[in-house]
Amino acid sequence: QVQLVESGGGLVQAGGSLRLSCAASGSILRINAMGWFRQAPGKARVLVARITSGGSTYYADSVKGRFTISRDNAKNTAYLQINSLKPEDTAVYYCNHLVTEGSNWAPRDYWGQGTQVTVSS
């Protein structure tokens, strides 16, 4: 089993910054990809950023230039630096890791518990 623990959410004013972290622990051979999703009230959960094991990144258009995803493979941790926050960034942010637990195992998705980010105007 693999556990993901998130931290770093909070209440900030528009224009502020936050850094979210997501640490994975447990039976991990390799983390193929790390991603961050968010879910605003009454809306679907959407992907905002993803980073592969090779360091390639993807960002949703709504966050390009403001969000930066990174990873520390030695710590099995993903980070999301969020700058120039806007009220529309308010959501619960979830991390998602695609984890290979053994040499003959298919990769599996694991989710963090979610961390609330609230941006006041």
Question: Mind explaining what this structure looks like?
Answer:
It is a single chain. By secondary structure, the chain is mainly beta. 0% of the residues lie in helices and 59% in strands. The chain has strands at 2-7, 10-13, 18-26, 30-39, 46-52, 57-59, 67-72, 77-82, 91-100, 108-111, 115-120. The strands form two sheets. Strands 2, 4, 5, 6, 9, 10 and 11 form a seven-stranded mixed beta sheet that branches. Strands 1-3-8-7 form a four-stranded antiparallel beta sheet, with no helix packed on it. The N and C termini lie far apart (41 Å). The mean pLDDT is 96.
Describe how the helices and strands are arranged:
Layout lengths: L1 E6 L2 E4 L4 E9 L3 E10 L6 E7 L4 E3 L7 E6 L4 E6 L8 E10 L7 E4 L3 E6 L1
Parallel strand pairs: 2-11
Antiparallel strand pairs: 1-3, 3-8, 4-5, 4-9, 5-6, 7-8, 9-10, 9-11
Labels describing this entry:
59% strand; mainly beta; elongated; 7-stranded mixed sheet; 4-stranded antiparallel sheet; single chain; 121 residues
C-alpha-based Rg, rounded: 14 Å
Q: What is the helical fraction, as a range of percent?
A: under 10%
Order of helices and strands: EEEEEEEEEEE
Number of helices: 0
- The residue ranges in which pLDDT falls below 50 over 5 or more consecutive positions are none
Biggest sheet layout = 7 strands, mixed
Shape: elongated
Report strand %: over 45%
Structural class: mainly beta
Q: Average pLDDT, to the nearest integer?
A: 96
How many distinct beta strands? 11
Straight-line N-to-C gap: 41 Å
